[in-house]
């Protein structure tokens, strides 16, 4: 096992099945739970930061007339819905979990308290962070970088639709090639879309390596944990 304490960033869209009109595809949630079980058995400590893009994004709302700040809070609430969906799927598999939110909503989740989060992880519970950073004008990528820094994670695993960072969009450009490894500086100067600059910068300052990997590859997360080089490693 290459990493012990991980923060996994899953976008809201990754949980979605547009063809079936589902915001939360039970098969995808079950796939996550099955891999988490293996990773916990390997001895990993797992924290999750989930996005909200399958339900609401502040910027998209602003385009349609919602005030940006209000829209961002709506987006943060969307991440809490997703956090609860993941919690439910993990509990169905007998995995112990806690949802912790950056905006207090004590009837449904614990407030985020760093020391408590670390204690949960040490006890083998999966901690799911909801409500992003709790602040508008941020993203859940930044929330993932922030939480990874706060809890002293060994890695930030960023799940995407492709198996790493490419020179160009591999979906539209067949000449695009994948980086096995790339520096934070290079990722920043190339303005790579895979994560926002704030998230890259925070990881760079706090020495948190980022692995960008294919969420839909069978056992992809388990392989990253085991040290496979199938994704892209972002480091100094
Ligand atoms: N958001 C926010 N502050 C945060 C995290 C998220 O305001 O710290 C809002 C923002 O409007 C964002 C939405 O929540 O568009 C959903 O998060 P994100 O777009 O990062 O989700 P993803 O694309 O990963 O599904």
From TrEMBL:
Compartments where located: Cytoplasm
Domain Aspartate/glutamate/uridylate kinase: 4-214
GO biological process: 'de novo' CTP biosynthetic process; UDP biosynthetic process
GO molecular function, one term: UMP kinase activity
CC per GO annotation: cytoplasm
Pathway stated in the Swiss-Prot or TrEMBL entry: Pyrimidine metabolism; CTP biosynthesis via de novo pathway; UDP from UMP (UMPK route): step 1/1
Domain of life of the organism encoding this protein: Bacteria
Binding locations of UMP: 52, 72, 133-140
Keyword terms, alphabetized: ATP-binding, Cytoplasm, Kinase, Nucleotide-binding, Pyrimidine biosynthesis, Transferase
A Pfam family that the UniProt record links to this protein: AA_kinase
EC number: 2.7.4.22
InterPro entries: AceGlu_kinase-like_sf, Asp/Glu/Uridylate_kinase, Uridylate_kinase, Uridylate_kinase_bac
Summary of subunit composition and partner proteins: Homohexamer.
Family classification: Belongs to the UMP kinase family.
Function: Catalyzes the reversible phosphorylation of UMP to UDP.
HAMAP family: PyrH_B (MF_01220_B)
Protein name: Uridylate kinase
Origin organism lineage: Bacteria, Pseudomonadati, Kiritimatiellota, Kiritimatiellia, Kiritimatiellales
């Amino acid at each position: 096992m290459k990493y012990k304490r991980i923060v996994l960033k899953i976008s809201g869209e990754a949980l979605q099945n547009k063809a079936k009109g589902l915001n939360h595809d039970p098969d995808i949630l079950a796939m996550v739970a099955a891999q988490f079980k293996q990773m916990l058995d390997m001895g990993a400590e797992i924290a999750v930061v989930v996005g909200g893009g399958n339900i609401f994004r502040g910027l998209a709302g602003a385009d349609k007339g919602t005030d940006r700040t209000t829209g961002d809070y709506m987006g943060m609430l969307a991440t809490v819905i997703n956090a609860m969906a993941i919690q439910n799927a993990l509990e169905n598999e007998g995995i112990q979990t806690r949802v912790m939110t950056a905006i207090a909503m004590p009837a449904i989740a614990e407030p985020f308290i760093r020391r408590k989060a670390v204690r949960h992880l040490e006890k083998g519970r999966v901690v799911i962070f909801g409500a992003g950073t709790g602040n508008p004008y941020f993203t859940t990528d930044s929330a993932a970088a922030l939480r990874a820094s706060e809890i002293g994670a060994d890695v930030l695993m960023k799940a995407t639709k492709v198996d790493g960072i490419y020179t160009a969009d591999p979906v539209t450009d067949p000449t695009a090639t994948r980086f096995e490894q790339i520096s934070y500086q290079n990722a920043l100067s190339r303005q790579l879309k895979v994560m926002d600059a704030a998230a890259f910068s925070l990881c760079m300052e706090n020495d948190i390596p980022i692995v960008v990997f294919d969420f839909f590859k069978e056992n992809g997360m388990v392989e990253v944990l085991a040290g496979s080089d199938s994704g892209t490693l972002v480091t100094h």
